[in-house]
Please model this.
Amino acid sequence: MKIKKKILISAIISILLIALIYVSDITNIPDSIILFKEEELNINTIFGMSVKTLEVSNTDINTTQDGEIIQASSESYAKKEEIINVGINLFGIKVKEVSVNVIDDMEVVPLGGLIGMKLYTNGVLVVGMSEIYGENNQVYRPYENTGIKEGDTITKINDEYIVSTEDMTECINASKGQEIKITYIHNNKTLETNIKPVETDKNNYKVGLWVRDTAAGVGTATFYDKKTGRVAMLGHGILDVDTEELIDISDGKVTNTSVVSIIKGENGKTGRIQGIVEGQKEIGTISKNTYYGVYGKLYNAGELKSVNTSEPVKIALRNEIKQGEATLMCALDNGQVKEYTVEIQKVYLNNNSNNKSMLLKVTDSELLEKTGGIIQGMSGSPIIQNGKLIGALTHVLVQNPTQGYAVFSDIMVKQMNDM
Model:
């Protein structure tokens, strides 16, 4: 009996593990996908799963007799459609629907100019916690056992929206020490907790949380769409300096910036461009901060100090990118954009999980003399190969600043089109 019981338990565990794999695989398939024409649709599936068309905005599509267009992991499909709804089937039963938006080949203006950015958070970001002393000189930790952690975002106090540190201070002082309800976001989940402020001196109350409502930095503008005014920047997201979490923004501003100095990088030590953000002219807005770049609109690209005046170029598909020489565009000398030679060493064609799509090396002697390689502030520098935009610089290898990573331009265009 014991052996049968163990076999039964093992069988149940195995079934649960298999079910978990299927649920995880289905959950990881996005609800919507953007593709360029001539680009293959890649949906990773496992045994028993298939993808079929449900609805096509343009009926010019190649399908099998039963309507199936994709089996197993992936297959090239539909070249001329605008919007396609596809169903994810598990053993013949539809378990998910995905909207595929096929966009025309785009032309964008590569920029390479240095810009300043100011981001305003949705609520206030918790960046630290500290003990506080009450009027009686007792030590208090009001935040303990509330569930609030560094990196969380506080959005409401007593159901009133909080948009700045001043708002939070006013609400806490208005409590007069009475318990308050705090609404906050932790790991993308909205939660509520209660906290009792402590009086530190007359009519001044605190809860021991350090918060921030803005962030600012310097980076490089990657490309600009003349038709829509949309702009893509950085190639990576802006993280909070204390929590290292992606900042959840409500909006932001793009400003001009001036180069103050360039600190050259060396092995084990990252260099950086030092620029001025405060007091600079506002030239655009920011609406999206993602792991694949920062996106917004420019009022007028001509207002960018170091605007590149080159003609629009096409976005390269991944299979067009080759190992070998390319050029990197960035502004170092008096804000003027120049092209520097780099070598594409590796291309990770199937990588959609992060912004390390290509490995490259700086080979230009002039750039190496100025910066030692890749430095902070160059993130977002557009990369051109064979007359097409292939990506944007994102990371430096600290131990060897001549090498770094870049994100595919197709990822950035799709992020921008999903604004």
Observations:
- The chain has four helices and 31 strands.
